[in-house]
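We modelled the chain as a single entity of 153 amino acids. Its sequence is:
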Amino acid sequence: MQLSEQLENVSKSIIYLHRELFDESPSPMKLQKLCYYAQGYSLAHGEELFPEDFQAWQHGPVVPELYQQYKHFQWRQITDEVERSKVDCLEFLRDIVSAYGRYDGAALSTMTHREQPWLNARGNLDELAGSTEIISKDSLRSYFESKLKVYGS
């Protein structure tokens, strides 16, 4: 399992921007959730940032390939050297990191547990149960479109 070039670039850009805005790196859990919010809002605007799907894991949405890349950091900050990636959506990602980066990974996980894409993918599963159910891109798109309608784009 290897990251697509798109997800590689988005995740490295998010790490870079998080360091720039908050003077610290995100943890792997926080990176997952920031990628989730970036993909969700991007889909709501009609653009897919990366092809990978999120799964509805116990602690919120996770892209397994991204998990594999950074799992050795566990709950600690990602310390890998990253450069600003060549992405066309850098200002969009800056907005996502600026809005959601002030929360830690656990808080972001809790937020996703209250949102329809994660809830729908898990169905009747207990919140503490493991799951590899896919959170569909259609579910992400429609949920984040509804958020944009409420809060304005």
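As a brief sanity check on the tokenised model: The longest helix spans residues 5-22. The mean pLDDT is 93.
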